[in-house]
Amino acid sequence: MLTWVFGDVKDLIVEKHTVDVAKGFLELSQARVNWFLSINEDYLPESAKLQGKNV
């Protein structure tokens, strides 16, 4: 969907890739996107941890 809205991919850089974390940069024709995906609860904000939102 991003390519439909913001155009073709110019560059894709994966900065980190482990079992529980992926991070990188995506450059499209009309947008630049820093992305971060994780299933590690250590990356949750403190407010979410205090409310038990780790599921």
UniProtKB/TrEMBL annotation:
Highest taxon above the source species: Bacteria
Name of the protein described by the UniProt record: Lipopolysaccharide biosynthesis protein WbpB
Species of the source: Nitritalea halalkaliphila LW7
